Amino acid sequence: MSEGILGQASKRRLAYGSAAAAIIFFSGAALAFFAQLVVARVLGPESFGIYAYVLAWMSVLAYTAALGFQVALLRFVSVYESKKAWSLLRGVIQYSERRAGVVGLLVILIGVTGVMIRGEAMVPELSTTFLIGFLLVPVWAFLWMRAATVRAFGGVITALVPERIMRDGLLLAFVLFASLSLKWTLDAATVMTATLVSTTLALCMAHVAMRRLRPSMIETVHVEYDVRAWRKAALPLLIVGAMDALFNRTGVLLLGWVGETKNAGIYGLAFSIAFLAVLPRTAIDTLLAPAVARHYAGRQFAELQALIVRAASWSLAAAASIALIIAVMAEYLLTWFGPEYVEGANALRILLVGQVVSASAGSQTHVLAMTGHERNLAAILALSAAVNILTSLWMILQFGLMGAACATMISLFLWNVAMAVFIKQRLDLWPGIYGILRRR
User: pLDDT tens, position by position, for the chain (440 residues)?
Assistant: First the structure.
């Protein structure tokens, strides 16, 4: 009886928390969409392509600098707080931030040196944008890590606001003010500078939220380190984070690498719009990830299966509805950014199909990461990223923009199938909406 009551309470918390998170995610998505609309129109296809290309590289490098702790902190902080292990809680926060800071500085030094060496072979706007972008790497990594810590402390909304609202809001404000009021002619380097400043201010906000929500006990306790356990969990998550970022940005990176910066911008824009269909799942993941860790640690497998099915059902219903609307209005939406972007309409529709299929499988990465299968997740994702790179490279050389979209859709399908098979075999859990079969 008590387990049933607890199960209903857990479902209600997931529903209410996911609804609140969804509001923030969709508000942030609308803000990000409008910011991207303004940036794309102000810069034009060529400069926007350079900005998107450099930003894609910085995202991959930022995940590398975070060393996997943007996910590991969510797990360890939740567990240590539930066990009142305050010494370890303080230790994991300090350890992760110091290591990420060192890697971030190394990325800046190596990146700046590389651009200085090859600067003459690069377009001036591209090299300048890269130099500014490298400074963004550690700031972005710290923002994700602080947000993960705040989420683990229960501040879900507080964790989402800095990156989802504040960061894009400040960027939008700068671009509008500079282009309309000051009449500046903006380029990719200027917008990258604005991105750096807005991300830094968002980090400051996340830092304040973390200091406000963290338990007062960790201020005075002696720091304890469990480095072996943290490294064991963080290393696979580092691969997961970097490969996930690489997987999502392979099209932009390869199009830019072969010199098609204009198509790189168009593809990046299409991918961002298609990603709107995934936002419901991302919002639900915000509450689902800590819940998976707690239920698995407590051996509450029946409730865990129910949460997975419920979360995936919500994700699929929302993703399919959003994808249908976007697919019908694809040309109209892309026209807002400028007439040159309309050629990405069919690529956008292909990407939407891949995202809906992915939504039906649910939050498989979080299920594996929160149940201690980081290494298996890393191996699956690394293999999928490699397949995506090879497939994308071949299809881009053959079909250009459409080839990049088709390769991403195929890779998304194969990736989700591989994770689904592993979850069923190792955890005896049905992934995504397919858990309904187990109930029947």
Answer: 444 444 555 555 555 555 666 677 677 777 887 888 889 888 888 899 999 999 999 999 999 999 888 878 888 888 888 788 888 888 888 899 999 999 999 999 999 999 888 767 788 899 999 999 999 999 999 999 998 888 888 777 777 788 878 888 899 999 999 988 888 889 999 999 999 999 999 999 988 888 888 887 787 788 888 888 888 878 877 887 788 788 888 888 999 888 788 888 889 888 888 888 887 777 777 667 667 767 776 777 777 777 777 777 788 888 889 999 999 999 988 888 888 888 889 999 999 998 888 888 777 877 877 777 777 877 888 888 888 899 989 999 888 889 999 998 998 888 888 888 888 887 777 776 665 655 54
Measured distance CA(319)–CA(362) in Å, rounded:
11
Structure token pair of residue 46: 């060529």
Contact predicate 193/132, CB 8 Å: yes
Alpha carbon separation from 373 to 250, 308, 367, 418, 427 (Å, rounded): 25, 17, 9, 14, 10
CA torsion, ordered 208, 63, 305, 356, to nearest 10 deg: 110
Q: Do 321 and 337 contact (CB within 8 A), yes or no? A: no
Q: How far is CA 440 from CA 423, 433, 436, in A?
A: 19, 12, 6
Give the CA radius of gyration of the chain.
Answer: 21
Angle (CA) 324-325-331 rounded to 5° is 110
**Side chain identity at 338, as an amino acid letter?**
G
CB 266 within 8 A of CB 343: yes
